[in-house]
Amino acid sequence: MIDELDLRTFTPHPQRDAVLGEVHARPFTRLVSPFSVIHLAFLAQGEAATSDRCRFIDFCLDRNLTPPEQSAKLHQIVIGPATLRWEQHSEFTTFTWICSYANCSDADHFDKVDGTVRSLIRALRQTGQLLVAIRLEVERDASPTRRAEQIFDKNSLAMVATKSGAAVAASDFRVDEKGFTKILVCDLGLTSHDLGALVQRLLEIETYRPLA
Predict the structure, then answer these.
(1) Comparing C-alpha atoms, which of 88, 62, 91 is closest to residue 76?
(2) DSSP secondary structure of 71-93
(3) Distance between CA atoms of 160 and 154, rounded to whole angstroms?
(4) Comparing C-alpha atoms, which of 173, 129, 132, 175 is closest to residue 41?
(5) Which of 118, 102, 121, 168 is nearest to 141 (CA)?
(6) Across-strand partners of 185?
(7) Which of 4, 192, 7, 183 is nearest to 96 (CA)?
(8) Average pLDDT over residues 66-86
(9) 131-181: per-residue pLDDT in tens?
(10) pTM score, two decimals?
């Protein structure tokens, strides 16, 4: 019987609790569709991580924005048309740019980035190597399969429904000509909390996949 198995008879890895707790260390951001996300992850350890943190602090101060505390691993700012979520992990640093596009049609938007956001991303250069680049779009399309087949390679397309069909996520896990992996989320009635949780988990999955 599985309930008779006492795990205390095994020797646990010294970092097991810390690794398992990592997924719960950062709260979800409540989100409302439609919006676009650009998620970048850079390898950063030791001096590189310290340098990148200082660079982000300077980026905030130069724009009269509140910088992260010295011990902070998560910091979020609103800058121009975007919300920027910065996270520092033990091996890498992520920058998640979230930008609403309520005035732009879905069909035209997946490959476009707001000009101001492009300039801000260029201004926040990192010393570490780029490992992850994700374009994630959240749309209110009532025909997820049709929309996904417009965007992705049908031979590699994977789709999943979540929250009893309140949303559908899709990707072909391929890198496009601009170097991004694309993920589509069709919001069919998620709450802002559930949408924020879904987007964060999808970004985490696609970040840890190449990191592994």
Answers:
(1) 88
(2) T-SEEEEEETTEEEEEEE-SSEE
(3) 14
(4) 132
(5) 168
(6) 138, 169
(7) 183
(8) 93
(9) 999 999 999 988 999 999 999 999 999 999 999 999 999 999 999 999 999
(10) 0.87
> What is the mean predicted confidence (pLDDT) over 45-67?
90
DSSP structure string for 134-190: EEEEEE--S-HHHHHHHHS-TTT-EEEEEGGGTEEEEE---B-TTS-EEEEEEESS-
Are 86 and 74 in contact by the 8 Å Cβ rule? The answer is yes
Can you read off the two tokens belonging to residue 208?
């840890």
Decide: 202 and 159 in contact? Cβ < 8 Å.
no
pLDDT beyond 80 at 209: yes
* 68 close to 57: Cβ distance less than 8 angstroms: yes
Residue 113 pLDDT: 81
Q: Is the peptide bond preceding residue 34 cis, with omega within 30 degrees of 0?
A: yes
Which SS3 state, helix, strand or coil, does residue 191 take? coil
- Amino acid at site 157: L
What number is the average pLDDT over the span 181-187? 97
Give per-residue pLDDT as tens, 22-39.
666 667 789 999 999 999
Give the helix/strand (H/E) hosting 60: helix 47-62
Give the closest residue to 88 by CA, choosing from 122, 121, 56.
Answer: 56
Return the closest-CA partner of residue 170 out of 196, 139, 191: 139
Cα–Cα distance list, 192 to 85, 166, 205 (Å): 17, 12, 20
Sign of CA dihedral 87, 30, 142, 118: negative
Place of tokens 């959240």: 138
**Whether 79 contacts 67, CB under 8 Å:** no
